[in-house]
């Protein structure tokens, strides 16, 4: 061992300035030499060989015992799972052994609690289905009413749209008529000034004055007629506009009534939907709470299933419905006993 320590110390880190690089093959040669020396020591020293063998055997025993303990625990878990299943199967088959009277009483109470909660859940589900159907029926009814209002309002909307379009046309035509009348008035004043200028102009001879005078007067008369026609047309258009505005206002009033009715139906639908959704949410919350309580109650049954299973495992009621579970438990028991015996046989 001192040789190995000296050999190992020869490979300790040395300063870079003193480090010598060795070929890799030399390292492997040295390693083989060390291995050969160790093998030689083992061959020559029987006590050392026996000591190493005893240590390995002890480790093997510890490993086997650890594996057996794991198998025993696994068997116990399997047994813990099989016993409550036996209790449940026996309960389902109608077995109520006297030795488990207390467990049977507790299971009866717990079963009744679960049954009552399931009844509550069933009532909630029935109520939820009715609420959902009521909402669907109300939705269909409101939609039909809204559609009817929209359909009845449509002709009025079309009429209003037509009148509004005609009102734009009338406004454009009225503007043109007023513009034409104003233009005619301007031309009349211009012609009258021109006529007055001719009358006052002494340089124009009588014949030319008379001809020019007649021409301007004819023009003025035509402009007066044009102005009058424009005025008549503007008056008619104003009257039509007033009629359109009055009628459109009446149609709009009718449409406002339809829109108000449609909005009212929509508001009723929204309110009903909010109420139904709130009620459904409340029922879902209550149902979830009941399911959670049932889960907790089921957990409370577990120790009683175990107690009932243990009693029936001891009493072994003859029932084909329980035969497979009995066989499973017997197999688990046998395996546990065998592993415990092997563990005990290995000693400490």
Q: What does this molecule look like?
A:
The structure is a single chain. The protein is mostly helical. It has a domain at 120-297: Up-down Bundle (Substrate Binding Domain Of Dnak, Chain:A, Domain 2). It is built from 6 helices and no strands. It has helices at residues 2-9, 24-44, 46-93, 101-200, 206-315, 320-345. The radius of gyration is 57 Å and the shape is elongated. 8% of the residues are buried.
Kindly list the characteristics that best describe this protein.
348 residues; mainly alpha; Substrate Binding Domain Of Dnak, Chain:A, Domain 2; 6 helices; 0% strand; disordered N terminus
Can you give me a brief rundown of this structure?
The chain has 348 residues and is mainly α.
